[in-house]
Amino acid sequence: MAITSVDGALAGMRPLRMLSKAITTTPVAGRLHSTWDRAGVPGPGAFDSTLNGVILEAPIAGAIPFDNPVSGNTYLNRFFVSASTGNGIIMLADRLWHNGGFTITSTSAQNITSPTWPARDANGTTNGDGVFLGIEVSAQTGAGTPTITVSYTNSEGTSGRTGTNSDATTSTSPIGSFFRIGLQAGDRGVRSVQSVTLSATWTSGTINLVAYRPIAVVPIYGTDIPGAVDTLTGGLPRLFNNSVLWTLFQQSATGAFRLNGAVQVTQG
């Protein structure tokens, strides 16, 4: 049964899952930065090395621990976190799929046959409603600021859709840099991916494409001042079985940072 009241949310609360990540690279101000492969709690995750990529399901290294309910559903009850670098936003997201194997010096279309997403879109289906794409840097790039073009099928099943990076790429992008891919007008999400094309060489480095569903976004208003969402302010979003939870941070200043916080779910 679904949780439909605050009392139900209180009754189903599970233990806190802690988050502590030290980012020792130099993220660029105003850009999202992924904590996926960074050391801390949870420990670092790994990347795939094939263009078709792999489906991700908990339990898996790199993800905040997640336990499926014995019965009923799982919802985000509370997410709170602080950062050591002043203002910013922190996103909690479900990582559904990622790939690798790109030739970072190629300007030709690099074809992908992505598998069916796990049934963890906004509606708990494989259609991709509310599922977005981003390019994650797993080894620092070289010179160049290419435009990234992705050909995809939208959540309604329409193929041949095209999206480009909504975050401008940067030269010598550090590990963890995360460039979101915009959607074609009217689209609500991505069901599958067909290709990625770089407009220019990035010279060196390694990039990976990630399919993810945002769960919650917390504002940070000052150094080590925590932000939070809870059952009431967060809207009680549902987390589907085997969710792979991880964080992305956008800070107001360039430089290394530290995140500390916790995630708590409720089940029932």
How would you explain this protein's 3D organization?
The protein is built from one helix and 17 strands. With 268 residues, the protein is mainly beta. Strands 1, 3, 5, 14, 15 and 17 form a six-stranded antiparallel sheet that branches. The chain has a six-stranded antiparallel β-barrel with strand order 2-11-8-13-6-16. β9 and β10 form a beta hairpin. The mean pLDDT is 94.
At a glance:
By secondary structure, this protein is mainly β. The chain is built from 1 helix and 17 strands. It starts with 5 loop residues before the first helix and ends with a strand.
Mind describing the biggest β-sheet? 6 strands, antiparallel
Strand content: 35-45%
Mean pLDDT, to the nearest integer, reads: 94
Shape: globular
The total of beta strands comes to: 17
Helix count equals 1
- Terminus-to-terminus distance: 6 Å
Order of helices and strands: HEEEEEEEEEEEEEEEEE
* Rg on CA atoms, Å: 18 Å
Q: Kindly state the percentage of residues in helix.
A: under 10%
Low-confidence stretches: none
Q: Looking at the chains present, what oligomeric state does this protein adopt?
A: single chain
Structural class: mainly beta
